[in-house]
Design brief:
Helix content is 37%, strand content 24%. It is α+β, with helices and mostly antiparallel strands. It has one domain. Strand 2 and strand 3 form a beta hairpin. The radius of gyration is 21 Å and the shape is flat.
């Protein structure tokens, strides 16, 4: 009974705090200054990848480039209609609102099939070609 009252009181306090703006929903000046420095670094990183890896570069060349720089990458996407998955690297984090656990910054390397008639069940092919590179900021683990 007491535990139930305590939980109800805490829940009511959190809801009230959120409604009144007592919970941190805006970044501080320190957070903003840090994000501005990180933003400049992210733009420089994006520029270096865009200069080194041009559209038409094969997946093998892109992944060899990343491995040579000891850059960990993952893969997103891929469907039977468009099986060429996107390679993704994490380049940093930004300020996150209280209701999310992370605000990650990614660089995505998009590929397409050189041979459009290749078996789509083959998955990733070394011969897939880079079509573009883009940055994505993604809030994750949000309520």
């Amino acid at each position: 009974m007491r535990l139930g009252l305590v939980l109800a009181a805490l829940t009511a306090a959190m809801v009230t705090s959120a409604c009144l703006g007592w919970l941190p929903t805006q970044p501080s000046k320190k957070d903003i200054a840090g994000d501005q420095k990180r933003e400049a670094a992210y733009q420089a990183t994006m520029k270096s990848y865009s200069e080194a890896l041009k559209p038409g570069t094969t997946r093998r060349e892109v992944e060899d480039y990343l491995r040579a720089r000891q850059t960990t990458f993952g893969r997103w996407g891929g469907t039977l209609k468009d099986p060429a998955q996107t390679d993704v690297i994490t380049i940093g984090k930004l300020w996150k609102p209280w209701f999310c656990s992370e605000h990650n910054v990614y660089i995505k390397f998009h590929f397409s099939r050189l041979n459009q008639h290749a078996d789509p069940t083959q998955g990733v092919l070394d011969s897939d070609v880079l079509t573009n590179i883009e940055r994505e900021d993604r809030l994750e683990g949000c309520l």
